[in-house]
Design brief:
GO terms for molecular function: transmembrane transporter activity. InterPro entries: MFS_dom, MFS_sugar_transport-like, MFS_trans_sf. The protein is mainly α and about 550 residues long. It has 3 domains: about 190 residues, Growth Hormone, Chain: A (Up-down Bundle), CATH 1.20.1250; about 80 residues, no CATH class; about 210 residues, MFS general substrate transporter like domains (Growth Hormone, Chain: A, Up-down Bundle), CATH 1.20.1250.20. Helices cover about 65% and strands about 0% of the residues. It contains 27 helices and 4 strands. Helix 3 crosses helix 11, helix 8 packs parallel to helix 10 and helix 19 packs parallel to helix 25.
């Protein structure tokens, strides 16, 4: 899109307005991806006491003063730690002897039962969540993680469906529809009367999120000059970071899952209203044989940019002249098969699938670090702010290492260090919350830096003729790992350290794959698959010569 420099005045007033309006929804995208942390928060809980416990109390303790905690110990055993009440069991018969002074009663073989009368939840941190609404604890605990898995399935489906629809009907149309879909179905989810309905609406909301992310990115890139893309991309990633901290503030303020669901989705009605101002990508219009509409969009952009003199100069002939290369490229069709057709492309694609699977903001490692907030006993809302704030220095560090160490070293190092931090946290006792929190934040920082790297790296590795297909392919494959991420947390029922072993192992394995990617620092962007093959062979030859 270098023709923008000549035809509409480069990066002008229109681009500033366009990028700002497209970036604002990014503040809410973090809310959608991380919403389950708060909407499905698990407060402290224990079995509800039998309905007739007050009668027992009057019968046995009419002359005693007993506080609530002592009374609970009569009905509910302690957990394995011996410090807190068991969350899923209660005594079949009340153990009144435990109230006696210096009681040494042996209760190890006392018969227990499940929570037949439901659960009592602590309301100090969350007023109400999906967990308290539908009792997603104990034997139903896996259903809580399933909500996030189903949402990720929607994100995966949306990447496939809306990616294809955008190529057929245009980025603008699909983006506008995605805003409307998320607004309606997201708010509808807040009114869900059952777990099943809520999961269906979250799945459809996930599809809309994919439509928004993919098409807003395309509209950004295709309406700004090449030299401004790095700056715009960096600023865009910081919007997502700020969104994480905004989510923490909203969740702390509301503490009600239905209200939080509405507040994070209702603004999309406003976004839907102003999104009709967007202009369709001129490049897409020309490549889809709609040059008259492309010319109309370019005239509009030139007018907003204060270049009215360019309107008379912008004709169909001038447009075809400046976009001749793109038009010629569109005559050769490329498919996902071309990503695996040659040895060099296979190597790049396979390695990138492994790297992307642990790198997206909804990937296993990201999800582990966010969902594992609930293993910390410190204030979860503050933790979310810290996790968001750590992205600022991490992304600045990534920009520095990318310029001096190169893409491959930066990618492999960030992934390896994030995996190492997750492994280290396994050996830190749960009582040492400060150290566990610091390690988790450090891991989040390395993972954020890794994501900044892979986003740039992927665009430089794939050739121009198939770059968009390649980005879509690896992004889609990454969603499969995202779907598995929350479900893996359930493995802690088998072994508490097992989820961390899986997540940390995935990051270290991905760092090994990153080592086999060709370096792109100071290399020209490849335009064809042949150029990628030649460049890869040249790097291999230079590596062998040094040895």
């Amino acid at each position: 899109t270098d023709f923008l420099e000549l035809l509409v005045g480069g990066f002008g007033r229109y681009q500033w307005i366009h990028i700002t309006l497209l970036s604002l929804p990014g503040l809410l995208m973090a809310s959608q991806n991380l919403l389950n942390n708060f909407v499905s928060g698990v407060p402290a809980h224990h079995c509800s006491l039998p309905a007739n416990h007050s009668i027992h109390y009057l019968t046995h303790l009419s002359n005693l003063q007993v506080d609530d905690m002592q009374l609970l110990k009569v009905f509910i055993p302690l957990d394995s730690s011996g410090n807190t009440l068991d969350r899923c069991k209660r005594y079949v018969e009340p153990q009144w002897q435990l109230l006696a002074a210096n009681s040494t009663a042996n209760i190890s073989h006392v018969q227990t039962e499940g929570c037949l009368d439901g659960w009592t939840f602590d309301r100090s941190e969350f007023f109400t969540t999906t967990v308290t609404e539908w009792n997603l604890v104990c034997s139903r605990r896996s259903l809580k993680q399933m909500i996030q898995t189903i949402y990720m399935g929607g994100v995966l489906t949306g990447a496939i469906v809306y990616g294809g629809l955008a190529d057929r009907f245009g980025r603008r149309s699909v983006l506008i529809w995605s805003y409307f879909q998320l607004a309606v179905l997201g708010c509808g989810a807040a009114l869900s009367s059952s777990y099943g309905i809520y999961c269906v609406l979250r799945f459809l909301s996930g599809m809309a999120v994919s439509g928004i992310i993919l098409n807003s990115l395309s509209l950004k890139v295709e309406w700004i000059p090449t030299k401004a893309r790095t700056l715009v991309g960096t600023l865009g990633s910081f919007v997502f970071t700020i969104g994480q901290m905004v989510l923490a503030g909203l969740a702390y303020w509301l503490r009600d899952w239905r209200k939080l669901q509405i507040v994070t989705c209702a603004p999309h009605f406003l976004i839907f209203a102003y999104s009709w101002w967007y202009s369709e990508s001129a490049r897409w219009l020309v490549l889809n044989h709609k040059p008259e509409e492309a010319l109309k969009s370019l005239h509009r952009v030139a007018r907003v940019n204060g270049k009215p003199e360019m309107i008379d100069k912008l004709t169909l002939e001038v447009l075809h002249c400046h976009m001749n290369k793109e038009i010629e490229s569109s005559r050769s069709s490329f498919t996902a098969y071309d990503l695996l057709r040659t040895r060099a492309m296979r190597r790049i694609s396979i390695c990138l699938i492994a790297v992307w699977s642990v790198n997206t903001p909804t990937s296993p490692v990201f999800t582990h670090l966010h969902l594992y907030l609930f293993t910390f006993t410190c204030f979860i809302y503050l933790m979310q702010v810290i996790f968001g704030a750590i992205d600022f220095p991490a992304k600045l560090l990534a920009l520095g290492t990318l310029s001096y160490l190169g893409r491959r070293v930066s990618q492999a190092a960030c992934l390896f260090l994030s995996g190492l931090v997750i492994f280290a946290n396994i050996f830190v006792p749960t009582e040492m919350q400060t150290i566990r929190t610091l390690l988790a934040c450090l891991g989040k920082g390395f993972t954020s830096a890794s994501f900044t790297t892979v986003y740039l790296f992927t665009g430089e590795l794939y050739p121009t003729v198939i770059r968009q297909t390649g980005m879509g392919f690896v992004s889609t494959m990454a969603r499969i790992g995202s779907m598995a991420a929350p479900a893996i947390l359930i493995l802690d029922e088998v072994l508490p350290a097992l989820p961390s072993l899986v997540y940390g192992g995935a990051a270290v394995l991905a760092s090994c794959f990153a080592c086999f990617l060709p370096e792109t620092l100071n290399f020209a962007l490849p335009d064809t698959i042949t150029a990628v093959d030649m460049e890869t062979l040249l790097q291999e030859f230079m590596s062998l010569s040094r040895e």
